[in-house]
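pasting for ref
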Amino acid sequence: MIEQVNEPKWDSTTREWIVDYTINDTTIGRYVQRIRCEALISAIKYIQMINEKKRKTAMTQTMKGNCYISGPITNDPEYKKKFEKAEYEVIEMGYRPVNPTRLIPVNPNWKWEQYIREGLKHLLTCETIYMLKGWVDSPGAKAELDVANMLKMTVIMQRTKQK
């Protein structure tokens, strides 16, 4: 009589499920379920992809609108981290973030004015502007705020954490 000796074990090296079988207490070998396992992994990845698409679709349908992130960039080596953190803050407030540090490529041949022009193009696609800490020391952020005020956009100031 053929009997299963153990529960299936996952072999992460070969990426296979392995089960031992015996006939009359004599081990006859292993049954490898690689094809079924690979199909299962593919199915799980597909379901995860579909769920992520559904989540993104639901998220964008419930968003309040686009929110441009504005703050100091020049001479701030940490600006990308600050803008990335701000993206999460903007999402938590219910807006779609428009992050100029992601949308505008760094071009060593460009002057400051060219970056401002590109930023303003993205600002004009928004209904809201999110001003990062330190914006008062940034001529570019001040210019973006002036445009936002002229266009009667909603202005949100980044809060400082209270201790």
